[in-house]
Amino acid sequence: MFNFLKKIFGTAQERLLRKYSHTAALVNEWDKQFQPLNDEQLRSKTQEFVERLNKGEPLDQLLPEAFATVKVACRRLCGTEVHVSGYEQRWDMVPYDVQIVGAIALHYGAIAEMQTGEGKTLTAILPLYLNALTKKPVHLVTVNDYLAKRDCQWVGTVLRWLGLTTAALTGDTPPEQRKEIYQADVVYGTASEFGFDYLRDNSMAMTHEEQVQRGHYFAIVDEVDSILIDEARTPLIISGPAPISRQMYEELKPAVADLVRKQRDLCNSLANEAKREIEQITSPSDKQQQERYDSAMRTLWLVSKGIPRHRILSKVKEDPDKRAALDKWDLYFYSDQNKEEKQQALASLFIIVDERSNEFELTDKGIHAWVSFAHNEAATDDFIMLDISEEYLKIDEDSSLDAETKVERKLSVQAEDGHRKERAHNLRQMLRAHLMMERDVDYIVQDNKIIIIDEHTGRPQPGRRFSDGLHQAIEAKESVPIQRETQTYATITLQNYFRMYEKLAGMTGTAMTEANEFKQIYTLEVLAIPTYKPCQRRDAHDLVYMSEREKYQAILKEIKETHAQGRPILIGTESVEVSEKLSRICRQNELPHAVLNAKNHEQEAEIVAHAGQRGAVTISTNMAGRGTDIKLGFGVAALGGLHVIGTTRHQSRRIDRQLRGRSARLGDPGSSIFFVSFEDSLLRLFAAPRLTAILQRFRPPEGEPIGSAAILTKSIETAQKRVEQRHFAIRKHTLEYDDVMNKQRQAVYSFRNEILQTADALALATELLHEVCIMGCDRFLKNRSQEGEWDIEGLSDWLMKLFPVSFDKEELDQDNLDKVQMAEFVKQRIVTAFKEKIARDQAHFDEIGKRGWAPENDPISDGIRNLMLRQLDRRWQEHLLTMDHLRTDVSLRAVGQRDPLVEFKHEAFALFDTLGRSLKEEIAKGLFRFQIVAMPMPLQGDGAMQQLLSSMHLETQRPLGELLPLSLEEISILSLDSVATPSIKAVETDKVAARKGRRRRS
Q: Which secondary structure element, helix H or strand E, spans residue 993, and what is its range?
């Protein structure tokens, strides 16, 4: 019945496409009406639309006319030379109907899936123009700086011709220019730059003028699956040097290298022994020889747990029967009844490596070996954590210790616990760097630095660092300078950043496979847009080989045959290492080629520009799969077009589709084929076990692909789906934790912006003092009738600890005052004392003002604002560190059958509540302990007054924590008769410290 109705009414996608096609027809009607207009009349449409919007006309109602205006403008520009990426390019684009349909989908907040070469870049211009008419922030988000600049220069020409402003935001944009860039009607930039600017605005800006962004209204995300899916697994983090550095990577490096070498030597010995044993077996049917064979395969199974990619192990797996024997041992040890035997077997290794989960574990043998390699008494404690509660109990029960000694002992226990945890963490990261992180796969070494390689695009990520000390561990491993440890200052996930936009849309060639995630996380629907011309690409079945060696031989044969035809070839690889290996193979066979990877990404535009020429051979990581169209050279289409060769199946089906999509753009001919081996990580880790049975049955002769392509292709896709589901779970897990932090982040950033933007910081400070008074009364005055619930003495001590205001206990203990009245009474006394303090400070400046000098800003307001920001930023950074530790701690509670996420939510709420209370108390305390004072500054010529104002502005904007300590002699107001002119400084003072003749630095 459902299928019958679907045939009559069509699917939801088909109905939506029909609706948008009707709107596209309206656009074409307006296009005909606007064609007779001259250039000036057409440009004036922009101002007309803005005025109509200001009068209340809905934006959706303007869509047909606005899109038609853009279409006519594109037609007018045809033949015009546009300067793009250093060379002149002739404009030749006018939107097709399918592009208009895609543009309509983008305007209504959907993801438009448009195939490669269908003109997504031009499509985006239509909704960008329409939404920019609102004069609200409109952003086009790209995957790299090159595309941001290129698109702004190229298609931004249309927007500029119509009277709108455009700007490109890239990593090399200076901070002082960013505010001006965000004032443009349409801003092109990368996701990370938009996200980091948001974090800087809300965690580092010290004045409202330093904030650069102006809101989040409409964003189109180009290559939306790459940004919102692939990159979303890693949050954006702004970090700075940690105040205390305890890194021990250089100290641990030699012993870690020795331990890893010991593991490698052991596995080499076991593998060689098993190999000799297998080679000596002549009659597998003999019972005794069968036992020897089984023992040898058991040994190889053990090698697979120590070094999963051991060369002898890989060679053995080329034989389907031996592969089946290994799988048999895997199944045997997976059984519960054999777990004890499994543990005994694994105990002979030093380290157990689980490649699938990307984890490792030291055995008891490994721990003992570590202690011997470390040559350090502390090494015996590297895997023993202190039970602090038990240690405290022992100290408390020791009657020979006095109270002061007990406190010292407890502090010593705390320090020892911190040292052990830090050393254990450093050790684990050093082992991870040696065991799990591969050079030219996960990172490259360039200019004596570790540069991360993006696992999805293959692009270098300069300026980014692995978190949690892993980057420092890799630096130690590769013997490059180790950077200082960092501490998180601000962080946000891309999911939560992009969910701030009122309207969000996206476009890509590959989104359908992740449609469920887009709907669930971002409430974005995916709409597949028809192609302008039917796709002519021929996609061959995958060729699957037993070994990597056979696969590369087949790839070389394919390259030679296709190159002989004169067709251009694009060879896609998964890593820098593989691209360089293929390059060596091509050089040995005298095949001219170009290589595009993270080591030479600066040449990307040049290499891609020549990739479609006759006879071109291009070896590339996934860099050539995003935002770049390979245009065919003259006569290449007649030869069959671009031939794409995939050297492996990626863990995501989308990456494979992107690589295929480089070929056959806009109806051009083309072809694609993937070569796969059973040594590829995807099949090795995630393929179904039944594949081994297929291999035993269909094992072809050496060098030939395995038969039953349909079964194998289905198995490969199943493995890819497993990995995609796993990655989705990781992203969702990250988001669930960040959702908790997001609520806290919004509250803190909202308070911070209130401090920055308020014109009267004094009023804000007074309001905060009131809140602190209420908070104190709620804490100490709960119930007058209950003993201990109405603690006047506690309230009095707490108030005098925070404020330099005397409170008589009898004065507070009045029977006729309830809690609300008591809070009002306390507030009046404290606010009055605060106003008196401010009045004294103001009197100093009034005296200076009588001499003809006045500061540019209100120094008292600036001082209060800086004090509040400094305290807020410091406590928020400490809170982020605490939350990082909490997230690590709660993961262990799953052992106790408790949900870590629920535990995290409960404790995070309690920590944030504590943060709010302590922050308000610290600010309230600080308001009575800072002074705005004049400092001597030598005069220099006629510009002394300007110098004074400039100095004052700079100093008052700086965080108070950056100011140098001042002596008591300097804390005074100098008259204008002095030899120096005063500049304004905000400092904190403490009455007790002042009486002792010193000032405590804040």
A: helix 991-995
DSSP state of 628: -
Place of tokens 């053990």: 302
- Tell me the pairing of strands 930-937 and 981-988: antiparallel
Q: Of 319, 723, 722, 714, nearest to 542 (Cα)? A: 714
d(CA 752, CA 749): 5
Q: Check if the beta carbon of residue 37 is closer than 8 Å to that of residue 162.
A: no
Sheet containing 186-190: give its strands across. 166-169, 186-190, 138-142, 218-222, 503-508, 111-113, 526-528
Token code pair at residue 459:
């692009």
**8 A C-beta contact, residue 26 and residue 64:** yes
Question: In the chain, which residues have pLDDT < 70?
Answer: 1-10, 243-246, 284, 377-378, 456, 602, 623-628, 687-698, 707-710, 784-789, 809-810, 815-816, 848-856, 931-1002
H or E segment to which residue 919 belongs: helix 900-927
Spatial separation of the C-alpha atoms in residues 62 and 753, rounded to whole Å: 35
How many whole angstroms separate alpha carbon 364 and alpha carbon 384? 13
| Angle, vertex CA 723, rays to CA 359 and CA 322, nearest 5 | 70
- Distance CA(24)–CA(2), nearest Å, equals 30
What one-character DSSP code corresponds to residue 978? Answer: S
* Residue labelled with tokens 């899936």: 113
- Buried b / exposed e over 780-808, threshold 16 CB at 10 Å, is bbeeeeeeeebebeebbebbeebbeeebe
* DSSP character at residue 227: I
| pTM tops 0.90, yes or no | no
Q: Which helix (H) or strand (E) holds 618?
A: strand 617-620
Reduce the DSSP state of residue 897 to 3 states and report it.
coil
742/500 Cα distance (integer angstroms): 11
**What's the chain's Rg over C-alpha atoms?**
34
Select from 314, 910, 356 the least CA-distant residue to 686. Answer: 356
| Order of strands, sheet of 460-461, starting from the edge strand that comes earlier in the sequence | 443-446, 449-453, 460-461
* 953-998 pLDDT per residue, tens: 322 232 323 333 322 222 222 222 222 333 333 343 333 333 333 3
In 3D space, the residue among 814, 741, 804 whose CA is nearest the CA of residue 781 turns out to be: 814
User: What is residue 818's predicted lDDT score, i.e. its pLDDT?
Assistant: 77
Among candidate residues 106, 97, 152, 108, the one with its CA nearest the CA of residue 126: 106
d(CA 35, CA 129): 18
Which positions ≥6 away from 408 have C-beta within 8 Å?
A: none
Helix axes 653-660, 709-757, angle to 10 degrees: 100
pLDDT for residue 914: 92
- How are beta strands 486-492 and 236-241 bridged, if at all? antiparallel
d(Cα 136, Cα 117) in Å, to the nearest integer? 30
Collapsing DSSP to helix, strand or coil, 399 comes out as: coil
Beta bridge partners of 28: none
Helices (H), 35-119: 39-54, 59-77, 97-107
Structure tokens at 480: 């490059």
CA distance linking residue 555 with residue 589, whole number of Å: 12
Contact status, residue 103 vs residue 127, Cβ threshold 8 Å: yes
